[in-house]
Amino acid sequence: MKNDAWSWRPLGELFEIGAGKTMSAAARAGVAKTPFLRTSNVLWDEIDLTTVDEMTIPEHELPDKLVRPGDLLVCEGGEIGRAAIWNGEMTVMSFQNHLHRLRPLVDDVEPRFYVYFLQSAFTQLGLFAGAGNKTTIPNLSRNRLAALEVPHPPQTEQKAIATALARVRSAMQTHDRSMAAAQELKRSAMLELFTQGLLGEPQKETEIGLIPEGWESVELGKVCTLSTGTTPATKHKHYYDGNIPFIKTADVVNNRITSANTFISQQAIDDYSLKLFPPGTVLMAMYGQGKTRGQVSLLEIAAATTQNAAAIQPSNEMDSAYLWHYLLSCYERLRGMGSLGHVSHLNLGYLRDLLIVKPPLEEQRDIARFLDTIDRKIDLHKQKRDVMGELFMALLQRLMTGEINSEELDLSALESVGATIEESQV
Length: 426
Prior knowledge:
Elements: E1 8-10, H1 11-14, E2 15-19, H2 25-29, E3 33-37, E4 42-43, E5 46-47, E6 53-56, E7 72-75, E8 83-85, E9 94-95, E10 99-104, H3 111-125, H4 142-147, E11 149-151, H5 155-196, E12 203-206, E13 209-212, E14 216-219, H6 220-223, E15 224-228, E16 244-247, E17 256-257, E18 262-264, H7 266-272, E19 282-285, E20 296-299, E21 304-305, E22 309-314, H8 320-329, H9 331-335, H10 348-353, E23 355-358, H11 361-401, H12 415-425
Parallel strand pairs: 3-9, 16-21, 17-20
Antiparallel strand pairs: 1-11, 2-10, 3-6, 4-5, 7-8, 7-10, 12-13, 14-23, 15-22, 16-18, 19-20, 19-22
Helix pairs in contact: 3-5, 3-11, 5-11, 5-12, 8-11
């Protein structure tokens, strides 16, 4: 859906489109290397410099292969059309040939407006659904990019729209930073709490490191009951026509499980003698590619589970929330345990022998309460960030289609977001 109130022009009439440097074995092996941006560095309205590659670019080519503040970068491949502005985050930066560098040819364009327009056009409005070349790897060639019909409203309107959307994006980023800070706080707190405790006791050396003298190092199987579930045959649809929560390994993502995505019937429970695990059970993914294996969840509902997850039921010596937090801290240790064929995995034997630290029960509960408080802070920022994300996408579509205009927006409430978050972190 196009905004007919705007004039439309080919993108190539508004921007000069520059080509980046092609990576080659010679460029990678050369000396005097220059950092360069790849498509993986260009996100929607964001440049990610977490990993920056380098290559040698001949001196006579270099000036034409550099980016400067205000350049609009557009992905040729990957998620074609993805775009962001280079703001001069590094003094010298070049770009690879899978990116297009756009510089204004006329004075009345606001490059960030076109970042947002491209995002809406490619992800919401379907205006450029056929823009990619139909090759093995879809790509957005320079000629196709230059031919794209884009709006050219008055520059004042471009700036007003870009400013409004940038304010919402800024609020999203504020919550992202606060969430990351809270997650780092939890990592630091777990490292300290599980080695020093809360009471300032002298420490003793154990097989898994220093712990307070009043704590024990015990095998998980000595203080918990471990078992697994079973997956009812998926070919029998009636097994999945019920209201009993069934947890798959994909649901076990270092979280508290308060609801289920899959449900099974009582007949499935009966036919497979499935056990319904009570709230307080800790589930651990034993199989899985990527980062799945070793992740743990705390059941807050009664649920059955798959044979690919361990169900860990604490005895009355262990607080379930403490155990969940502690096993979260063991992720890297768990990842290194066991393998079978090409797929690394855990099994109940490994887990029963896993050494854990066991404080007195009341101290377990105090530690869990402390870490729960940090989790609530993380969850709050995530919820607010999600709300901001939904607001951004709704505004993006409505502004780009003319359903609303920038003069109708009142985003003054967002100005207090940063200050409120900063105060909450003091």
